[in-house]
């Protein structure tokens, strides 16, 4: 990789101490017999969730989400003029940038965007685009920037929820909120909201019916705006996982409403003062 | 202070240039007087001052960017920017030889090049560097050998109107009393630099 | 060792080169080989692929292929490993997009499967003597190792137009569809990867029907592809390289040195090309035979 | 003309009226810093992390420790690689892509603060001389750009360095490659506490501390003073309106009080975590 002259350069190549850990990760049983997972949750339980909007003063709209140990912050700018003047379009333009902070995962990530982050940016954009009324800001652009501060599993799902909350906080007209939720399909069980070590890892998982599924769901329109899956899964397991995932989204929905409710109340009595 | 010599107006294509040699440190500067400026950098009521610093070897990194920032802000305060609104003044600094008190030499040569280009200035600036070595006494205008084993390096830039401090850049730890002594010592020695400017101007 | 699979699905012409090289495995996957996809949209497909235009589409195709091939069942990566932690085969799959008439993802995945089917990796013998390891690659063309491709998936794209969904949408159909569901279907009908693309949204029930049709079409596609590949392999090299579908015409036989070839390019008439050698000595004799 | 229009139409006069009574529009007087909130160890995947909120300005610092070969000319010294990221997330002025000029200048400033304050002795990062040393990648991420990011960055870096716990590395003799034992962790010895305070010059003679983004745009000069315990470590005034030496020196006492405030804040936060 050409040395990046615009940043302070360290040594040419360095390797992470994790690569030399002696204790090989003993295969802990993912789900114990009576259906309890490692962190004590049942199969369909979500992790503890905390959502707050309006965390960045400079942004038009912003949101911060904590799903278990996964921490993600998102800011929305615009509608503002398009930098690169492509062809004229009556519809507004939505752009998304998804980035892991370099210290967010166990192995250090690069400053530049790698292919996984580009893939997530496209998926995030396609999850949010059906919900945004693009015709309300023609010839203009709304930029969404998502930064993962700590990744403890289902980062894409949490960032979909966080981005749609930031859009709502920014006052961009949307048809509906988009709730992100991800599942881990493990033999015949479906684990909701997996953590990083529960997440699907193609290398050391067994043959069939091991995979992960991420859904972006619009609750009041009952539409799925984004769906991606990994790993080899049979059709009926996939359908069952989809219905469980939609139910999990319904469980997240009240938390988002309550958080938006309280932030609007603060704004109201802030403007009265 | 080390002995200083300077040649002005050697290059033909630029509006003003100076090649200043201070002891063994030598810096060449070229100034392109009020020229047109890119749309996004244009300021309506002022001239845009841009500095490009070229080191002798290697690609420009963050250290060069810091250099450019210091020299650009210093020149921005010296130049009467309101005299040339919506235009650009480009200063290109080329490192020829760096052997001690390098930032001061760059700022002095930039000031001389601006003079040579006839750009309207509010005041002249003189930069002086001093070093606090291990024993704590202050050496003026150090060369690179002294700089290597010094404890702290202080660079001051004074203007010739009321000898106020335009720019300060210091590295290494020292007490505030030592800071005051360095300031007064550098202020007196900056008068010598202004003398050098005067008789340089008289000679050519 | 490069293998080529030129694929002319009538809608999208894909060229696919596959290079197998020795390399070190990734840190966390130390006893397996690796597949590396690289998609290149050449500008003669559409003008907007010029310069960096095609980059987004290329990265989308390669990401989708990585997602679909990223499951242990698809390609047996264990066989690609020579020495765990030190040496393994890395398969660099380069996909060159020459003409895009819609449904690019399916064409790309079929081309990849064909190329993998055709892949022959030379046998590697490992000799261990006093500490350091000797790798010796056999250069006789028949002592090769092939990759079992039967269970590797093909992508089926279902485009939602109005209330129903279509398979293998042409460029015009793709223009008027808002949402596409791309499924990686293996030969026995399991989904190895799925992604919704496009700016529209789908309701859950229509996704279920799409999954069913996708599965049916996927199984059929896999079966027919495997038959075509085996049939071509059985004919072996006699059939000649089916590049732009050119073949040698044998029926016009005269005793002068002449070779005829017939090239038919999809979408246009066929062209007959002949090469005639006129020996310098008896010019007129050769010319009469040429008239016949 | 309501206050709001006056503020947007003529910002300089608006500020001048306030500063004549030595007070600022947001109620702070000239020498008062904004409310500083510090949170240490907020990211568990990093070896050391800290979050600093200086009023609205928010900076998060994450440190990842990795192993590498040392430079031949300094076989015993490890590396500290600070980098400031002014991502487009924190302010509408920044565009995505490689770091801009301001981010590079700030990264260089942080490198100078780390080197000249000698807060971490680079030789303490050495595992085996000439073969294996630690490199600390300190990445400072600006989450909200409301002026005076330099002070927030220096504080975040110092707090994160104090939070770093390095796993013990043992070299196994035959294979000579390192083995990490993640359970036994050793904190990093911090020898001095650099604290920075930034002043803005307004109308060539009024000096006030900790400018917000708006005040930074109106200021005609910026001075940054970094003190370590009772010594000055770095005084940085790049151009801007000239100052009499006395004006500069009475900034020093304010900086020394600031460094006491900050060290008290850091100790309180570390205590609150240990309990």
From TrEMBL, chain A:
It comes from the Eukaryota. Keywords: Cytoplasm, Exosome, Nucleus, RNA-binding, rRNA processing. Pfam families: RNase_PH (PF01138). Gene3D superfamilies: GHMP Kinase, N-terminal domain. GO terms for biological process: nuclear mRNA surveillance; poly(A)-dependent snoRNA 3'-end processing; rRNA catabolic process; rRNA processing; U4 snRNA 3'-end processing. One of its GO terms (molecular function) is RNA binding. It is found in: Cytoplasm; Nucleus, Nucleolus. GO terms for cellular component: cytoplasmic exosome (RNase complex); nuclear exosome (RNase complex); nucleolus. Residues 46-173 form the Exoribonuclease phosphorolytic domain. Belongs to the RNase PH family. Component of the RNA exosome complex. Non-catalytic component of the RNA exosome complex which has 3'->5' exoribonuclease activity and participates in a multitude of cellular RNA processing and degradation events. PANTHER family: EXOSOME COMPLEX COMPONENT, EXOSOME COMPLEX COMPONENT MTR3. This is Exosome complex component MTR3. It comes from Mytilus coruscus.
UniProtKB/TrEMBL annotation, chain B:
Coiled coil: none annotated. GO terms for molecular function: RNA binding. Residues 1-119, 125-182 form the Exoribonuclease phosphorolytic domain. It holds the Pfam family RNase_PH_C. GO terms for cellular component: cytoplasmic exosome (RNase complex); nuclear exosome (RNase complex); nucleolus. The keyword rRNA processing applies. InterPro entries: ExoRNase_PH_dom1, ExoRNase_PH_dom2, ExoRNase_PH_dom2_sf, PNPase/RNase_PH_dom_sf, Ribosomal_Su5_D2-typ_SF, RNase_PH. Keywords: Exosome, Nucleus, rRNA processing. This is RRP46. Belongs to the RNase PH family. One of its GO terms (biological process) is U4 snRNA 3'-end processing.
UniProtKB/TrEMBL annotation, chain C:
Residues 21-122, 153-216 form the Exoribonuclease phosphorolytic domain. It is found in: Cytoplasm; Nucleus, Nucleolus. InterPro entries: ExoRNase_PH_dom1, ExoRNase_PH_dom2, ExoRNase_PH_dom2_sf, Exosome_comp_Rrp42_subfam, PNPase/RNase_PH_dom_sf, Ribosomal_Su5_D2-typ_SF. One of its GO terms (molecular function) is mRNA 3'-UTR AU-rich region binding. Keywords: Cytoplasm, Exosome. It comes from the Eukaryota. Pfam families: RNase_PH, RNase_PH_C. GO terms for cellular component: cytoplasmic exosome (RNase complex); nuclear exosome (RNase complex); nucleolus. PANTHER family: EXOSOME COMPLEX COMPONENT RRP42 (PTHR11097:SF8), EXOSOME COMPLEX EXONUCLEASE RIBOSOMAL RNA PROCESSING PROTEIN (PTHR11097). This is Ribosomal RNA-processing protein 42. It comes from Mytilus coruscus.
From TrEMBL, chain D:
GO terms for biological process: exonucleolytic trimming to generate mature 3'-end of 5.8S rRNA from tricistronic rRNA transcript (SSU-rRNA, 5.8S rRNA, LSU-rRNA); nuclear mRNA surveillance; nuclear polyadenylation-dependent rRNA catabolic process; rRNA catabolic process; TRAMP-dependent tRNA surveillance pathway; U1 snRNA 3'-end processing; U4 snRNA 3'-end processing; U5 snRNA 3'-end processing. The keyword Transit peptide does not apply. One of its GO terms (molecular function) is mRNA 3'-UTR AU-rich region binding. Residues 32-167, 193-256 form the Exoribonuclease phosphorolytic domain. SUPFAM superfamilies: Ribonuclease PH domain 2-like, Ribosomal protein S5 domain 2-like. InterPro entries: ExoRNase_PH_dom1 (IPR001247), ExoRNase_PH_dom2 (IPR015847), ExoRNase_PH_dom2_sf (IPR036345), Exosome_comp_Rrp42_subfam (IPR050590), PNPase/RNase_PH_dom_sf (IPR027408), Ribosomal_Su5_D2-typ_SF (IPR020568), Rrp43 (IPR033196). The keyword Disulfide bond does not apply. It comes from the Eukaryota. It is found in: Cytoplasm; Nucleus, Nucleolus. One of its GO terms (cellular component) is nuclear exosome (RNase complex). Coiled coil: none annotated. Keywords: Cytoplasm, Exosome, Nucleus, RNA-binding, rRNA processing. Pfam families: RNase_PH, RNase_PH_C. Belongs to the RNase PH family. This is Ribosomal RNA-processing protein 43. It comes from Mytilus coruscus. The lineage of its organism: Eukaryota, Metazoa, Spiralia, Lophotrochozoa, Mollusca.
